[in-house]
Design a protein that fits this description.
With about 600 residues, this protein is an alpha+beta fold. It folds into five domains: about 180 residues, P-loop containing nucleotide triphosphate hydrolases (Rossmann fold); about 80 residues, Translation factors (Elongation Factor Tu (Ef-tu), domain 3), CATH 2.40.30.10; about 70 residues, Elongation Factor G (Translational Gtpase), domain 3 (Alpha-Beta Plaits, 2-Layer Sandwich); about 110 residues, Alpha-Beta Plaits; about 120 residues, 2-Layer Sandwich (Alpha-Beta Plaits), CATH 3.30.70.2570. Helix content is about 25%, strand content about 35%. The chain has 14 helices and 31 strands. An eight-stranded antiparallel sheet has the order 11-10-16-7-8-15-12-13, covered by helices on one side. Strands 2-3-1-4-5-6 form a six-stranded mixed sheet, sandwiched between helices. A hairpin with a 2-residue loop joins strand 24 and strand 25. The chain starts with a strand and ends with a helix.
């Protein structure tokens, strides 16, 4: 037990977590040079394409220290993006310590602080590591000063390295062995193990990732999942190497995987406790706090016949992404589907792409929204996250929307650009802090609905990539909210409806109408596309009709002949318009989503 170390790498986005994990894997000889590739722990195509980590990944590394002792290091690489902080919180529950990575040029950023507080809440040992010391802009004395002033950590404890060149990696491994404590456990106590991840294998059922806190488990044991009391026989257990490595037995303090022929996906729940069936533990482990989604969108299959396969796909996806919340939903235009809650717009985008790639689902997603609160004239309060359930406006006394307190860190020269962006998004109560020379920390209250679309992208572009952003919810505030309906050929399309602040309703309506005009194919009659609040039209565009040149055969002669033919054509088109149906293609729903982003 004294030779095991469980640790995580946490940092702000792009501070080099995955690159450091690559170097640690190379340094411990876990992968041959010919088999090595960058971002080796990022197994998803999406992660490699975008250059970000989406899922936390685990690997066990054998390491021989400078004193000659042999250790097993369980490394958990985590995401850095604010939308995936739930992944980080689950990874930290399986560790005794963290490497807190800080960029030698950018310094302490918003997510660095957020991860530090998360690690302190779990009472973990924190090893500060300054990465990218090979950069020309690296300023190690300034970063050490920030670590002392902003994080309250001892600058003498800092380890400096360059994950790119490999400089200082040996010191990082030594710091893990010396400063992160071994797991405290009782091997002779009843088995208690925490499920922190799972995925579905079509041949072997659900594969569970778990950390053992007390006791041990071996092949053939009968295990009980405490959440729903289901019992399974262990078929295989093992450690995470680059490929799964079966073991005869796993003991307290170890992190591994478990295959037990679990065919029913709903039997496994992230945060559940596993114990022996004949000698159960008295109390389940605390697990994880329930995630609170902030962005909502409805998901529908393109063909209604695909609804059963969408149900199975979402259930399998939920195993691997515990932050997804969903419930059944239906729409007049799109049929049966699901109302899903996400932690942010990137989370939603990743969900859409993973459903299409990994689960082979062709889906339509509605415009994202947040949950609003309405006080009615009978004194009741209702929470609405779907425009379809917008209450009768005649009975609304007060409407409120969720606000967040944003923590934005930027170099001093970009403060003006950030304040302009925040003011455009209805920002309130700005406060400024000056954590170091040339850096400004801005605290500002923003409506969540204004942040979820493209705030992060605009912040990055207006600060040349140096701005960092973190936020926490601060409750609801009164707001003038309206329901914006989009009408195609005078028929409302419920999947395109959205709830917006009155001031931004017309801008949004014009953008959506213009985008639909590009996407909806022409018909034999004119198609009006309108944005409306109640009975008031606030935006309109028209798709012109296909027209045959009916006057082509008239050459010379009286003008009344041409007029007669044009009038006849006009009557025919008016008759077509009355009976004509306009089908909104899937690309139009996706393009509206892109307009909003």
């Amino acid at each position: 037990m004294t030779k095991i170390r469980n640790f995580s790498i946490v940092a702000h986005i792009d501070h080099g977590k995955s690159t450091l994990a690559d170097r640690l894997i190379q340094m411990t000889g876990e992968v041959a040079e010919r088999d090595f590739r960058d971002q080796i722990l990022d197994s998803m195509d999406l992660e490699r394409e975008r250059g970000i980590t989406i899922k936390s990944n685990t690997i066990t590394l054998p390491y021989k220290s400078r004193s000659g002792e042999e250790f097993a290091l369980n490394l958990i690489d985590t995401p850095g993006h604010v939308d995936f902080t739930y992944e980080v919180s689950r990874a930290l529950a399986s560790c005794e310590g963290v490497l807190l990575l800080i960029d030698a040029a950018q310094g302490v950023q918003a997510q660095t602080l957020a991860h530090l507080y998360g690690a302190l809440e779990q009472n973990l040992e924190i090893v500060p590591v300054i990465n990218k010391i090979d950069l020309p802009a690296a300023d190690i004395p300034r970063i050490k000063e920030q670590i002392e002033n902003d994080l309250g950590l001892d600058p003498e404890d800092v380890v400096c390295c360059s994950a790119k060149t490999g400089e200082g990696i040996a010191d990082v491994l030594e710091a893990v062995v010396k400063r992160i404590p071994p797991p405290e456990t009782k091997e002779d106590a009843p088995l208690s193990a925490l499920v922190f991840d799972a995925n579905y294998d079509p041949y072997r059922g659900t594969v569970v990732s778990f950390r053992i806190f007390t006791g041990s488990v071996k092949k053939g044991d009968k295990l009980r999942f405490m959440w729903n009391k289901s019992v399974y026989d262990v078929e295989e257990i093992g450690l995470f190497r680059l490929k799964k490595s079966p073991q005869p037995c796993l003991k307290a303090g170890q992190v591994g995987y478990l295959v037990a022929g679990i065919k029913t996906i709903s039997d496994v729940r992230i945060g559940d406790t596993i114990t022996h069936n004949n000698k159960p533990v008295a109390q389940p482990l605390p697990g994880f706090q329930e995630v609170k989604p902030v962005v909502f969108s409805s998901v529908y299959p393109i063909s209604s016949d695909d609804y059963p396969s969408l149900c199975d796909a979402i259930e399998r996806y939920k195993l691997n992404d515990a932050a997804l919340i969903y419930q059944k939903d239906s729409s007049v235009a799109l049929g049966r589907g699901f109302r899903c809650g996400f932690l942010g717009l990137l989370h939603m985008e990743i969900f859409q792409q993973r459903m299409e790639r990994e689960h082979d689902q062709a889906i339509i997603m509605t415009v994202p929204s947040v949950s609003y609160r309405f006080t009615m004239d009978d004194g009741s309060e209702i929470i609405v996250d779907n425009p379809a359930y917008y209450p009768d406006k005649n009975h609304i006394v007060k409407s409120e929307e969720p606000y967040i307190r944003a923590n934005i860190m930027v170099p001093e020269k970009f403060v003006g650009a950030v304040m302009n962006l925040s003011t455009e998004r209805r920002g309130e109560n700005p406060n400024f802090g000056y954590p170091g020379v040339g850096r400004v920390e801005i605290f500002i209250d923003l409506p969540l609905a204004e942040v979820i679309f493209d705030f992060y992208d605009k912040l990055k572009s207006s600060t040349q990539g140096y701005g960092s952003f973190d936020y926490e919810p601060i409750g609801y505030r009164a707001s003038d909210l309206v329901k914006l309906d989009i009408l195609v050929n005078k028929e409302p399309v419920d999947a395109l409806a959205l709830m917006v602040h009155r001031d931004s309703a017309r801008t949004r309506a014009i953008a959506i109408c213009e985008r639909l005009k590009e996407e909806i194919p022409k018909q034999m009659f004119k198609i009006p596309i309108q944005g409306a609040i109640g009975g008031t039209i606030i935006a309109r565009t028209t798709i012109s009709a296909f027209r045959k040149d009916v006057t082509a055969k008239c050459y010379g002669g009286d003008i009344s002949r041409k007029r007669k033919l044009l009038e006849k054509q006009k009557k025919g088109k008016a008759r077509m318009k009355m009976v004509g149906q306009v089908e909104v293609p899937q690309s139009a729903f996706i393009s509206v989503l892109n307009t909003s982003k």
